[in-house]
Amino acid sequence: MRLLVVLSSLAMPAVAWLSQRGVFGPDNGTVSDRYPTLLVAAGYAFAIWGLIFLLDVAYGIWQATGARRRDPALDRVAPWAAGGFALTAGWMPLFSLGAATPGLFWVCLLVIIGALACMACAAARAVDGVVPAWARNALALHAGWLSLAVFLNLAQVIVAFRLLSPTHMLGWSLGLFAAAACVLALVNLRLRGQWGYVVAGIWGLAGVYVHQSESSLPGAGAAALVAFGIGVLILAQTLWLQLREPALGARTVPAE
Known about the structure:
transmembrane helix; 256 residues; transmembrane; membrane; 9 helices; mainly alpha
């Protein structure tokens, strides 16, 4: 299982590189632009994937080497990390292929929900096992970004299949924002305010705020303010969690 974590961590940047070069179809940004929503973040926000991939690869190699190979805490993390990495890698070509076969967007939605569930479980087990701070925050960063990406993906499915109004989106978008806020708050609580999770969530919300502040879509201004407000609430929750349990960051297992 430890080897699967390594291989799946390496698969993500490799598949992303192929996807950006159009091997599977239009790149993810091009496909996303076809279905504008009130939850889309500014393009620069997606650069966080570079950091996520880097930390995940580092984590994959680290957990499979040295005395850590026999650490039972990391054994409990491994299947969830492998699943989350593999599903993340699988989502990218599926989303590109959806440009020609829109029905695949439903598969994409299921895959990204699965990826979020796996990464949240991996990060939670890392926290429970008290692994080093950088390692648990690497997993938490991935989970934090997916916590928003799920709802961005869902919004685009709604627009692509016209499940709800594509011209008057504010009402149902507020519902998605509320659901996203609940997921962020609940997972953040479970992870005891890991900064990796919070940084990814706030980074994504800031990207939504920037993009929607400049968008001409009806309701975009209100969506920007809602995204900003959720970011403030998650930050406040994290500060409370850190004050409630300040010793977590100091407790680690041996690095070797």
